[in-house]
Structure formats: structure tokens, C-alpha cells
Shikimate kinase (Arenimonas metalli CF5-1), 179 residues
Amino acid sequence: MNPAPNLVLIGPMGAGKTSIGKRLAARLGLAFVDCDHRLEEVTGAAVPLIFECEGEAGFRARETALIAELMRGRGQLIATGGGAVLAEANRKQLAGRGFVVHLQVSVAQQIERLGRDRSRPLLAVGDKRAKLESLAVERGPIYRDLADLAFDADGLTVAIAAERLGALLEQRWQRTEAA
Ligand SMILES: Nc1ncnc2c1ncn2[C@@H]1O[C@H](COP(=O)(O)OP(=O)(O)OP(=O)(O)O)[C@@H](O)[C@H]1O
Ligand SMILES: O=C(O)C1=C[C@@H](O)[C@@H](O)[C@H](O)C1
Ligand SMILES: [Mg+2]
């Protein structure tokens, strides 16, 4: 049990952080914030354009600043981007004031969901499967170490996953009102 004022979703691209997160926030009465979407609102540019103009380093710097700002708040469900856990500063922020849920997904399922996706610059490569596999090797242990709870939504619809995860969180997450 990690009492915390916010709920945080981490996990690989296509795990459902955005889509399950939106429904889960409504079910739990939390304000939904999607980090990628917030960065797009603030910059007025889509994620691929931010990568193009500022490089991945520029995107990561913006992501880190946003996470630090968001984690000062409470009562939020924060859907992170897939690479948000890479920076130690982000991990400290997320774990410090968040109950962290790792949404798990297989590479096969990622391919099904993201095969034709053009909004994720890291997947703008010839061999998506190889890229997703190497990211899974690199990032899997980081997601596992940071998480208070792991949830596998493979084979579940977004609605059912949100419902089941919501029920689990009612038992496992002690929501605090910490300032
Ligand atoms: N459980 C699910 N069942 C069916 N489709 C899903 C499920 N979860 C996600 N999807 C679909 O997969 C796609 C990617 O999901 P989503 O954008 O929620 O992933 P994400 O974890 O937020 O990824 P990213 O790290 O890139 O932000 C969307 O089209 C979404 O509708
Ligand atoms: O896995 C990643 O590194 C990323 C995932 C997306 O959510 C975006 O944050 C961006 O495309 C990078
Ligand atoms: Mg997302």
C-alpha cells in the first residue's frame, strides 16, 4: 500500500494509458491529465513535430517540467507517455506523490494496436516489432521497479479493463488529500 494523492499510469506505447486512463478517471472521480496531450496543447504542436523541431531531448525536457508541475497537484489520474519513466527525476516525482500502475501489454498486442500509427515518432522505423522488442527489454525492468501495481489488460476491452482496474484500486490504493 502506497498512500498517495494521485494515480499514475505507466507502461509501453499502446498499453492503454490514455484510453483506459480516461475511463478510469471518470469511474474514480479523478481529473484526467494525459501528458502527451497536455504537451501538445501547451506547445501547439503534435508530438512528432516537437521531436522534429527540438529533438527527443527537447521533448524529454518538456515532459520532465510538466511532470514536476503536475505532481504538485492532487486528485488527478496522470497518463504518462511511454518514455516518461526513463529520467530518474521523473521517477522520483511520480513515485513521491503517485500510486503508480504499470499497464502491461505484449509486443504482439502493441503491433496490432499501433501497426499503422503515425503519431509516435519512435515507431517511425522500418521494423516496428524489433523496435518495440528492444524498448521492452530496456524499459520493462524500469516499469516493474517503479510500479505499486501491475495490471495486464491484454484481451480486455478498454471499458472492461477500466472497470476491473477501478475495482482493484478501490482495494489497493489509499487516496490521500495531502497538500
Ligand atoms: N484494452 C484495449 N483494447 C483494445 N484497444 C485498446 C486497448 N487499449 C488501448 N487500445 C487502443 O490502442 C491504441 C493505443 O492506446 P493508447 O493511446 O491508450 O496507448 P498509450 O498507452 O496511451 O500509448 P502512449 O505511450 O504512446 O501514449 C488506441 O487506438 C486504443 O484505442
Ligand atoms: O515511448 C515513448 O518514448 C513515447 C511514447 C509516447 O507516449 C510519447 O510520449 C512519445 O511518442 C514517446
Ligand atoms: Mg498515451
